[in-house]
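In response to reviewer comment 3 from the previous cycle, which asked for concrete evidence that the modeling workflow produces usable outputs, we include below a single protein chain processed end to end. The sequence was submitted unchanged, and the resulting C-alpha cells are shown without manual editing.
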Amino acid sequence: MSTLKPNKVLRKKVTRRRVLIGLGTTAGVLVVGVPLAINAGRPALVEYVVENGTGPQEAPFNPDLWFEVTATGITFYVPKMEMGQGIHTALAQIAAEELEVKPEQLTVKQADTVRGYAGGTMFTFGSNSVNALYTPLREAAATLRELLRAEAARQLGVPAKNLTAAGGQFFIAGRRDTLSYGKVVEGKQGEWTLPDKPARLKARKDFKRIGKAMPRVDFRDKVMGLSSYGYDARVDGMLYGAVARPPRYGATLAAASAGGASAQPGVSKVVIDLKANFAGVVADSRTRVRNAVKKLDLRWEGGTNVNQAEIDAQVRAGAGVVVRRRGNVGAALKQGTQIEAEYSTPLAAHAHLEPLAALAQVAPGTNGKIEIWTATQYPQKVMDDIRAALGKDREILLHPMQLGGGFGRKAGQTAAVEAARLSAACGKPVHVGWTREEDLQQAFFRPPSHHILRGSVSSSGRILGVEQFTASGDIIWPASMPEFVKDTIGFDPGGILGLFMPYDIPAYHVTNRREALPVPTGFWRGLGVFPNTFAVESFTDELAHAAKMDPLDFRLNNLPDTENGQRLRAVLEQVAIRSGWRMPPPAGRARGIACGLDVNTASAQVAEVSVENGQVRVHRMSVAVDPGMVINPQGAKMQAEGSVVMGLSSTLHEVLTVKDGMIESANFDTYPLLTLRETPQIDVDLLESGDTPYGMGEPIIGPVGAAVANAVFALTGKRLRDLPLRL
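The workflow returned the following C-alpha cells.
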C-alpha cells in the first residue's frame, strides 16, 4: 500500500454534549454512545431531496448506544447493514482501535430499530458508511475507554495516568497485576460520570488495528452456514404468503375474487384489497401458496404497453437543463481538431443473489405491535411504508437481517409490507419470499442513458472545449414527487454522479435531461457513476486518439493542478506501473485505460483484452484506488474486486428489454451474468492521501466499462459506444 502526502483534515471536537452514557443502566452494565447527525454526502442529499426538501436535519439527540460492557465482554451494536461489503468488520476495527481491545474481543451485533439509531444513520447506501461513522465511532469508543480508566483508577487507588489500556485490560505502572474492563464494570457502584475533559483520540502513528488486514467478524458464521438472511427468518407458527403481480407496469386491480385459490390445499386465507391494489394468499407451505395465488380470479386494467424502441426514442440527449457552464464552448469547438460521438447504456437489473423476503408478525387490533424480520438497506423506509399501509400509530420493531446482496435494490423492502398485510389479515406470522422471476421483473431498474459529446483538442494535446448532452431515466426521484417539481429542478441528483469530466477544460458545457419512464427505475450500484463514466472516459480516449497521444499521457496532460487532480495523477501513474502500460502487451492483446472520481475516492483501471470467436475477452484488470485512508486493506481490495466483476458483467453481458409493458427476461437464462470462467485476474493497489476514509463500495465500478471499450479500440480499431459491448 503506497502513501501519499496527507491532506488537511477537518475533524469535529469531542465534546461532553456529544457523548452519552445510557439511560437506566444497572449495576454491572455500562452502555455508551454518541448521537449522530445526518451526515454530509450522498445519503444526506437523498434524504434532503427526497424526504425533506428543506436542508439537513438536526442531529437527533438520542443516545445511539454503541457499546454495552458487562463482566463477560463488550458488545458493539452496529447501525449499518451487512450485505457482503464487510462493513461490520471495518467498523469493529475502528472501535477496537480506540477501545484498546483486539477486534475479536468485541461481540459484533446488528442493531435493531429500537436501539435508538436515527433512520438516516441506519440507511446503508452510497459508499458512505465508514466515512460517516469514522469520527463519531472513535469518539464513543475513546470515551468508553476513559470512563473505564477513571473507574479503574478509583478502584485501584492509583492515578489514572498510571494505567495503560491494552487488550481489554489495564496494566498498572510498577505492578504485575492487571484489571480487566469487565472487572471494572462489575466493581462499579453508583452512577457513571463523564470525565471533565473529552477523551483524546489516538494519533494515527499509534494505530494498531486501523490500516491492517484482519479476518471478517462474520467469517465463521458465513462458512458454517449460521448467518441469517431475510429468506431465513423463522418464528413458531408462521405461515407463508404470496402476492399477485400486475402483467404490465402501472396496471391496477379492477376486480378480484378468491376464484379457485381458497380451495387449494393448505390455504388458510385469501386477502383482497382493491383500494390498495393488493391480492394475496396465505398457506402452510411456500409451494402451496405459490400454486394457490395463480388460482385467484383477477382483472387488471390500465398500465403501459410500452416497448423497448419507444423507451430508446424517449431517452435521447439534447434539450435539458444546463448543469455546468464554463468558458465559450462555441468558440472552443471551432479550434483544433474536433470530434463528436454518441454513447448509450441499457436498462439493467441488480441481480442480487437473495430475492426480496420478509417475515411479519402483526398483533391484533388497529394499534397492535408489528414485528418485522427482513433484509433491507433502509429500515426506516420499511417502517414508514408499513405504517402507511396499516396505520401511522403502529409500534414497529424491525430486526435487520443480513442481505444477500443489495446494490440499491433493497433501499426499502416491498416484501415486508406484503407480509405485514397478510399477517394482519390472518392473525399469524407470515413470511413472503419473492421468486427469482418476481424479483427480476417486478423490480426497479438501472435506467437507460444516452450521451452526445463534442470536443476539440489542440496540437499539443490539450482539451480546448467540450459540449456534453446527457439523458437518463430517474434514479432518486420518487414516483410520489410531482412532475412539475422534478421538471423545475431539471435533473435527478443520482443521474449526474460521474457525469463531469475530471480534466482542466477551459470551455465546458453540460446539459442534462431527465425522463420519467413508464418502467420503474431507481437506485443501482453507484447510481449514475457507471453509465456516465463509460461515456466521458470513452470520449476522453477518443480525444486522445484525435490528438495522436498515448491515452495515459493525454489524461496526465489534462489533469488540473488541484488536490483531486493530483490524486487522479497518482492512481493513473500507479495503475500504469501495475499493468505494464509502458510495455508491449502479450501477443493478440491490447490495453485500455480509464479513471474517475466518486465520493472523494479516486480510481484508475487498465483492462487487458483479446477477441476470441468474435467475443471480447478480458484477461486482466489492474486497479489503483485512493480512498483517502484505508481501514482494512483486505476488505478494501475485495470491495474493488467485487466492483470490477459487477462492472465487467454489465460491460459484456447485461441488458434488459421491455415488451408490452414488461421486462422480457424472467431469469438468468435470458439475463446472463459474468461467470467465474470469464472473471479475469484482478490486481488492486491501494493508495492513501489523507486521514479521512472515503467510499469503496461504488467508485471503482465507474471506469470498468470505458477501460474495456478503450482496450477493444486499441486492439481492433473499432470504437464500441454502446453497452453491453458487441463486436
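The first helix runs from residue 42 to 52. We consider this sufficient to address the reviewer's concern, and the full set will be provided in the supplementary archive.
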